[in-house]
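Continuing the series of single-chain predictions for the mutant panel. This is the parent chain; the variants come on the following pages.
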Amino acid sequence: MRLKEILQKMNDEDQEFLLNNNGQNWEASDLLNELSEASLNVQAYIQPGIYIAEINDRGYLGSVLYRLIQKA
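Parent structure:
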């Protein structure tokens, strides 16, 4: 699954999570509008309620792209 698909699904379902990266919080819709097409096309995996991580070329989980935090 691509990062774009994960973000689109989160946006469509209006999930109650913010995506955190380097101390900054984002709505899924903001990332869909602001990330480059190359960034959105990264293979990724979502661990519901915890994080979104990239999938490396070997098919293993790579670095965490975004931590999911509950909206207040």
